[in-house]
UniProtKB/TrEMBL annotation:
Its EC number is 5.1.3.2. The keyword NAD applies. Residues 351-360 have a biased composition (Polar residues). GO terms for biological process: galactose metabolic process. Homodimer. NCBIfam families: galE (TIGR01179), PRK10675.1 (NF007956). Residues 351-370 are annotated as: Disordered. Mutarotase converts alpha-aldose to the beta-anomer. It is active on D-glucose, L-arabinose, D-xylose, D-galactose, maltose and lactose. Its cofactor is NAD(+). This is UDP-glucose 4-epimerase. Keywords: Carbohydrate metabolism, Galactose metabolism, Isomerase, NAD. SUPFAM superfamilies: NAD(P)-binding Rossmann-fold domains.
Length: 370
C-alpha cells in the first residue's frame, strides 16, 4: 500500500538519495528532481538494487519554476516535498555568495510558488546546524537546543536561515489567509525545519554512499580519499580552538539515522498538522577533528596523513546538537555510532574507489539478492 507521494528535490545527492530510499522502504511513492550538478543518475539504479523500487526522476533545476510546475502537473498525487536541492559548501559560499543566494534562496522560492499553485501543502526542509552560528556566544547553549538564537557566520548558513524564514512566513500566511476567509484546509499547511549536524557514513551494503564529483567538503570523505591514495593528506583548519586538542568540535550523525529523521518528520507533519516546527537531528555527542582522524584511521588500519592549516573564515568552535526535542516529539534518536559511520564509509570507499562510475562489487549485489 502506497502511503503517499513525495517530491524529493536534490534527491540524487548524498542525503537526498538515502532519504528517497527510506521513503520507498516505508511504501511512499517518490519523485526526484535534481539537476545532477554534483550527483549521478546511477544512484537511482543502486536504490532499486537495495529496495526493489526505483524513484521517478526529472533532470531539472530548482530555480526553474516552470519545470517544477510540469512535475507537479504530471504527478497530481504528490502532497509533500522534502527539500534538499541546494549548494552546500561553507568555504565556497564565501567565494561565490550570490550564486548561493540565487540557487538556495531563489530555488526555494520557485519551489514554494509551484507547490502553492498545485496545492502541495507539506514541506520538510533540510536545513543545517550552521544557522546557529557560534552558539558559544551564549551561556548554556552547548549542546545546541532549538531555542538557541539564529546567527549564521557564513553565506551558506545565511541562505539556510533565510529559507527557514521564508518557509515559516509562507506556511503561516497560507494558514492565516484560509482561516480569515473561513475556508477549510488551513491545517494542511505544515513545515519541518530540520537542522542537522555532520552527516557521515554509507549504506552498510556497500552499494550507495557519498559520491562528490569535485573536491569533497566534509571531513570524512576527504579522509577516505587520503586512505585510498586519491589525496596526499587532510588539511585540518585550525588547531588553536578552545577544545581539548585545539581542533573544532562537531556532531557526526550516520546518514541512515539522518534519512530516517526526514521520514519521521514527514510522518509527523501528515499526522499532527503542527504548522511550522524546527528539530535538531544529531547525536548529542561532539567529536574533535583529531578524534575523527583517529577513529577513521583505526578502521582503515593505519595512520592517515594530515597537516594543520589556518582556520577558515566562518568556522566555529562547537556544533553539537541537543536532540531532546526530536527524541521526545518525533520518537527519533540516533541508533548508529561514529564507529559504524567510519566502518560503512570505508567499506563503500575501498570497494567503490570510482564511486558511481563503476559497477558495484558482485558480492555486494549478490548479498542484497539473498
Amino acid at each position: 500500500m502506497v502511503v503517499g507521494s513525495v517530491l524529493v528535490t536534490g534527491g540524487t545527492g548524498y542525503i537526498g538519495s538515502f532519504t528517497a530510499l527510506a521513503l520507498l522502504e516505508a511504501d511512499y511513492k517518490v519523485v526526484i528532481v535534481d539537476n545532477l550538478y554534483n550527483s549521478s543518475k546511477e544512484v537511482l539504479n543502486r536504490i532499486e538494487l537495495i529496495c526493489g523500487k526505483k524513484p521517478a526522476f526529472y533532470e531539472a533545476d530548482m530555480t526553474d519554476e516552470a519545470a517544477l510546475d510540469k512535475v507537479f502537473a504530471e504527478h497530481p498525487d504528490i502532497d509533500s516535498v522534502i527539500h534538499f536541492g541546494a549548494l552546500k559548501a561553507v568555504g565556497e559560499s564565501g567565494e561565490i555568495p550570490l550564486e548561493y543566494y540565487r540557487v538556495n534562496v531563489g530555488g526555494s522560492i520557485a519551489l514554494l510558488r509551484s507547490m502553492t499553485k498545485h496545492n502541495v501543502t507539506n514541506i520538510v526542509f533540510s536545513s543545517s546546524a550552521t544557522v546557529y552560528g557560534d552558539a558559544t556566544r551564549f551561556p548554556n547553549m552547548i549542546p545546541i537546543p532549538e531555542h538557541c538564537p539564529i546567527g549564521p557566520t557564513n553565506p551558506y548558513g545565511r541562505t539556510k536561515s533565510t529559507v527557514e524564514a521564508i518557509i515559516t512566513d509562507h506556511i503561516n500566511a497560507q494558514r492565516n489567509n484560509l482561516t480569515k476567509k473561513g475556508e477549510p484546509g488551513a491545517e494542511k499547511w505544515n513545515a519541518a525545519l530540520l537542522r542537522y549536524f555532520n552527516p557521515s557514513g554509507a549504506h552498510p551494503s556497500g552499494v550507495i554512499g557519498e559520491n562528490p564529483l569535485g573536491v569533497p567538503y566534509n571531513l570524512l570523505p576527504l579522509l577516505a580519499q587520503v586512505a585510498i591514495g586519491k589525496r596526499e593528506k587532510l588539511l585540518v583548519f585550525g588547531d588553536d580552538y578552545a577544545s581539548k586538542d585545539g581542533t573544532a568540535i562537531r556532531d557526526y550523525i550516520h546518514v541512515l539515522d539522518l534519512s530516517r529523521g526526514h521520514l519521521v518528520a514527514l510522518n509527523y507533519l501528515r499526522e499532527k498538522s503542527p504548522g511550522v516546527k524546527a528539530w535538531n537531528l544529531g547525536s548529542g555527542r561532539g567529536s574533535t577533528v583529531f578524534e575523527m582522524i583517529k577513529a577513521f584511521s583505526d578502521v582503515v588500519g593505519r595512520p592517515l596523513a594530515y597537516e594543520v592549516a589556518p582556520r577558515r573564515a566562518g568556522d566555529v568552535l562547537d556544533l553539537t546538537a541537543n536532540p531532546t526535542l526530536a527524541n521526545q516529539e518525533l520518537n527519533w534518536k540516533t541508533e548508529l555510532t561514529l564507529e559504524d559511520a567510519c566502518a560503512d564509509l570505508w567499506k563503500w570507499t575501498e570497494n567503490n574507489p570510482e564511486g558511481y562510475n563503476q559497477q558495484p562489487p558482485k558480492e555486494f549485489v549478490d548479498a542484497l539478492k539473498k
